[in-house]
Please model this.
Amino acid sequence: MDPRIRRELRALKLYALVVTILLGTLSIAAFKQSAQRTKFTEIDVERINVVEPDGKLRMVISNKPRSIGPIYKGQPFGYAGGTRPGIIFFNDEGTENGGLTFAGQRMPDGKFQASSGFSFDQFNQDQVLYFQYSDNNGQRRIGFTIADRANVDIFEAIARRDTITRMQQGPARDSAMREWMNPGGVPMFAPRIYLGRTTTRAAMIDLSDPNGKPRLRLMVDSLGTASLEFLDAAGNVTARLPQR
Model:
């Protein structure tokens, strides 16, 4: 073969190789760019996991079958998923710390049940600030609650509760459960403030003591009658305005 033609063929091969490499590099760069940010006009999805770069969950959006159960530092505990469609939030450690859930359906007998809630959890505990709507065929309760939770790690508390429920029924189990519900003499859960509408169609504000017992109640009942009541720890009205 003519040496000149051989040189031209080598140059042509080199040119083809360089072009191929450049096109491949541009294609990879374009793919990475599109992978970083993609725009959809509409999307159908059963579940979306929003995660940190290290894989920790920050938010899960899902339907009912694919909904997530409780998570503590990235590990499932308590009960399985599949029961609460909506949005669940997670803190920096990958532990659940609130969410938005909703449900509602009419039963075969024609009656209906519906509920929704938006809650925020105490660190490593359960909800302490929440908005809730529950409806049992017209028996409707709608409200806002601020609560106290014991300073007990929820993972350890649930493990202890499960151990107690496996005990043989009797005085020992009952005593252990009472102790579990009041660790160190403090209630595991105590509502402190409730503002809402009751199932009797009354508008009400309840202020409760550290044990969750209502002590001051401002109410306008279903007939429009307003009242202010003071209660003792047993729930008895000690004073009322206006007096009956």
Notes: The two ends are 119 Å apart (CA to CA). The longest helix spans residues 3-36.
